[in-house]
Amino acid sequence: MRRILSLILAAVILTIAIPTLAYPIELMGNDESKIYHRIDCRTIKYPERNHWTRFTSTEQAISAGYRACKICHP
Ligand SMILES: [Zn+2]
Fold first, then answer.
1. What is the SS3 assignment for 44?
2. CB within 8 Å of 25: residues ≥ 6 apart
3. How far is the CA of 35 from the centre of ligand 1 (A)?
4. Regarding the domain delimited by 24-74, which CATH topology (the fold level of the hierarchy) does it fall under?
5. CA distances (Å), 56 to each of 15, 50, 61, 65, in order?
6. Rounded CA gap, 15 and 74, in Å?
7. Residues 6+ away with beta carbon under 8 Å from 55
8. Which of 11, 32, 66, 73 would be a feasible disulfide site paired with 36, CB 3.0-4.6 Å?
9. Ligand 1 centroid, distance to 52 Cα (angstroms)
10. H runs (alpha helix) in the chain
């Protein structure tokens, strides 16, 4: 019985953990300053107003000519 419970618990933990780990990082590049940020960066005040480009990796942002934000360290 204990074994079954621990198996169920392990399955639940894996179900929660795997999508979190597999989720791609999300970055937002400011088209005007050419700086990319984590989406939760405190310097992003108007994500709907400015011109933002979405990236899923730092390599993608760098190759597009953006540099990393010094506040959120993406
Ligand atoms: Zn930032």
1. coil
2. 38, 56, 57, 58, 74
3. 8
4. DNA Methylphosphotriester Repair Domain (3.40.10)
5. 23, 19, 8, 15
6. 27
7. 26, 27, 28, 29, 36, 61, 64, 66
8. 66
9. 13
10. 2-22, 58-63
One-letter amino acid for residue 73 of the chain: H
Token pair belonging to 46: 């108007």
pTM for this predicted structure: 0.66
So where are the chain's domains? Answer: 24-74
Distance CA(73)–CA(65), nearest Å, equals 16
Sign of CA dihedral 61, 69, 73, 14: negative
* C-alpha 16 – ligand 1 centre gap (Å): 28
